[in-house]
From TrEMBL, chains A, B:
Keywords: Glycosyltransferase, Ligase, Phosphoprotein, Pyridine nucleotide biosynthesis, Transferase. Coiled coil: none annotated. Residues 17-141 form the Nicotinate phosphoribosyltransferase N-terminal domain. It catalyses: 5-phospho-alpha-D-ribose 1-diphosphate + nicotinate + ATP + H2O = nicotinate beta-D-ribonucleotide + ADP + phosphate + diphosphate. It comes from Streptomyces durmitorensis. GO terms for molecular function: glycosyltransferase activity; nicotinate phosphoribosyltransferase activity. The keyword Lipoprotein does not apply. This is Nicotinate phosphoribosyltransferase. The lineage of its organism: Bacteria, Bacillati, Actinomycetota, Actinomycetes, Kitasatosporales.
Amino acid sequence: MNTADLGLPVDVPSTALFTDHYELTMLQAALKAGTADRRSVFEVFTRRLPEGRRYGVVAGTGRVLDAVENFRFDADVIGFLRERRVVDEATLEWLSSYRFSGDVWGYPEGEVYFPGSPILRVEGSFAECVLLETVILSILNHDSAIAAAASRMASAAGERPLIEMGARRTHELAAVAASRAAYVGGFTTTSDLAAGFRYDIPTVGTSAHAFTLLHDNERDAFQAQVDSLGPGTTLLVDTYDVTEAVRTAVDIAGPELGAVRIDSGDLLLVAHRVRDQLDELGATKTKIVVTSDLDEYAIASLAAAPVDAYGVGTQLVTGSGHPTCSMVYKLVARAHSADVKAPLEPVAKKSLGAKSSVGGRKWAARRPDEHGVAEAEVIGTGAVPVELADHQLLVELIKGGEVVAREPLDTVRDRHAAARERLPLSATQLSKGEAVIPTEYV
Amino acid sequence: MNTADLGLPVDVPSTALFTDHYELTMLQAALKAGTADRRSVFEVFTRRLPEGRRYGVVAGTGRVLDAVENFRFDADVIGFLRERRVVDEATLEWLSSYRFSGDVWGYPEGEVYFPGSPILRVEGSFAECVLLETVILSILNHDSAIAAAASRMASAAGERPLIEMGARRTHELAAVAASRAAYVGGFTTTSDLAAGFRYDIPTVGTSAHAFTLLHDNERDAFQAQVDSLGPGTTLLVDTYDVTEAVRTAVDIAGPELGAVRIDSGDLLLVAHRVRDQLDELGATKTKIVVTSDLDEYAIASLAAAPVDAYGVGTQLVTGSGHPTCSMVYKLVARAHSADVKAPLEPVAKKSLGAKSSVGGRKWAARRPDEHGVAEAEVIGTGAVPVELADHQLLVELIKGGEVVAREPLDTVRDRHAAARERLPLSATQLSKGEAVIPTEYV
């Protein structure tokens, strides 16, 4: 993790505290029992998609790689753990030289996923893998939830750009990750300067009602904005009367006025009226930006309206009803020793109810039909069937502790668009339904 | 903000990037127009509570104070804004010496709130106040949402302790703030080490299924845990067969076994069976901890079950259906100049629909009935009626740019418990309803 990973100009030496207490006490017990170094395989997967959703979107993988690389127990952290007596001295000693040395494979970021998809696979000693559970799940559960909502909104918006503007509706640093995930899902820009700083996502802004109210009247406010930012700016036209505001806006900025923003009222109706008025005033190239509690359904309902861009806040950063995924990090196989030749035995919880899982180290492939459209998520253990060899989903991300798969965010964004494109058409239906392709275990 | 505010042992010099792009462009325009220094009053409030909720909980105020204090545009930030051409050189020059010098009043953290409550009031020049909008709202919207869910869960749990264990279900740093907000709302402990590090919240842990699966059998796993952590540990008993696990657990740890955790199945039924079995085995003091997608309703449904503690994850960190509040930050009054003697004029957006707001610098008081039970949230502008003078809610938080109201988290937690106690009894009904007291404007 580098200085900017928190959207802040600071050095962040460690992510090791983003960890549940029990990871460390389990480590202590396993160290004492001599089982800590047993070769182990953990997998991240979800048992189901959020209700009604047809696909999930893997997001946050790049952040996971940073988090694993910087997972170190430095002196401050060790001091805290000692003072609080979280674990014993032998365990602190072990932790002080911790560095993940195993392998991580996973779905490449931006890929879609389905129930059971082994999104991430972490292999190494039990000790080194178990510690990573909390931070890996935090990142993937949050970022994938946002990306899934973003993807649905991007489908609904079609070619029209989407502006992420939800920073004020979520934790200040979750907001930075949300901007990133939104970009992966298909958003175009963000209002969040920290996201611009950290991830180089283009930042944009319009104006707030406070700016209009600051001035003696709307005309003064518009004049001040245009004087400073030029006629290409976006003027907010719903502080008082929209029709009068649009007239004033064009009067001041001329037909070169960049855009107007509408933030309240019946957006469908108001957008039509404003478009007509702008055209009558000769401002035929002036764009209309709408905001106001939009979600994918509201965006879709505006498809036929003369809207040029959507600004989305609350519903984006809260995952449009599903603010988290239900990804879990489970031990699926382990050997009896650290020896790489020791056979891996599949393991799985056997209790009643929906929480049992499938043991064994898994591969996954997406089987296409004759037209190249996905028809099943195929998951198995053992050898990959020949006909699926070219359709495998997992790629190597960390090899012997070294990150081997960093990539630019635009690559991830393009991958997501391409992956969604290869799903059956019903994937982008907004109505509630089942996963768009079935998961098959072989 | 000090080194640990991110749950990390690092220096964090600035929160200034947690800001929407338009705050800076509005500043630029106002600087050029000569209106930037107009004395202004902004207020944070919410137009409604989340559907069905009877009260809100103010949380995050302490974090807001840190954020305002550390809101500085250092060289790295200025360099970024220049390179991206967010604002012009004159504005960058102004920003480089920015330091909030105004006043902030607000509901003390932990207080309850209702629709319209002026939770925070920020006064100073337009320029210095408008910049703080995004970060203030991020913190209050997130933390208050979590605290409100926590408060309902704490009511439902009664005297039984609540363990916050949702880190893996939300952004890794949102998780730290969520632990803090949960503690304010009435939780007892957290699993999140970063929250323990930063806010001194007691951390606790049990064990995961992976630990059992790592070992050759459940007996080995329990033995390893008890050997290392002592009989007072909490053993997870639902990896295979609960009855057999409980028998093995007491066999190994003896009647001094601290607790068993149940994480699946019909918790009501299983808790009764396990209690009976523990008692039969002589482990009458061994406690039962339940986890597994609990929310306030599930907690309430277990009130008559022999449960000693609840662990809550997903539903806590996602605000139990309401992951954000709808708090806004609005300009409510401004003068025509920077002169402190210039009269403040109330301002408000006038557009159609639910988004209009009430202008003017407000006071708020909670009027009690003859028994001391709250009967109305009274909000007004101008002079406070004599009979309400002793019931005012806003307190001074920042004076001339200096924080004057830091307080320990336990004070905040106690304040919340006391504030909830003074609400009508129906406040803690879990069923959906209206705000438990009306908001009156005078």
